[in-house]
Amino acid sequence: MEACTLRDTATVGGILGDGVVVIALDGPAEATVVGTRIEQSQRAAVSSFGGNTALGSSTFVCQSFDIASEAWMGRTPVFEDRGAVNCGCPEATTPCVAQSYALAPPGNLE
Question: Which domain holds residue 88?
Fold first, then answer.
């Protein structure tokens, strides 16, 4: 994902509410987010459930928390910091923090 703006991400059926979600369901999952602004996600700006996620030159503003980092299906999430990623509210002026809340990804979203 490059040069995007995501705003007001809401939950789906009361689940998640993250701007970007990377889930390693049936195998490895990877995502790169650069030059992107994520604002006011109901939960996290970015979450990874066992995936590899590269973040660079992005701004995450006013989420419940910055980055969700959760193990899934025996896979540990990996975040690559490509620099210039800031978080905060009302302005993104501090480095982002990846943290675990021992959450599970959503089930089938049919």
Answer: 5-9+30-99
Structure tokens belonging to residue 29: 């999952």
pLDDT tens digits for range 16-70 = 899 999 999 889 999 999 999 999 999 999 999 999 999 999 999 999 889 999 9
In terms of pTM, does the model score above 0.85? yes
Nearest CA to 67 among 91, 35, 33? 33
Domain count, the chain: 1
Strands 94-95 vs 85-88: parallel, antiparallel or unpaired? antiparallel
What is the C-alpha separation between 49 and 75, in angstroms, rounded? 8
- Residue 103 CB: number of other CB atoms within 10 A? 17
DSSP string, 38-100: EE--SSEEEEEES-EEEEESEEEES-SEEEEEE-BTTB--EEEE-S-EEEESSS--EE--EE-
- The DSSP code for 13 is T
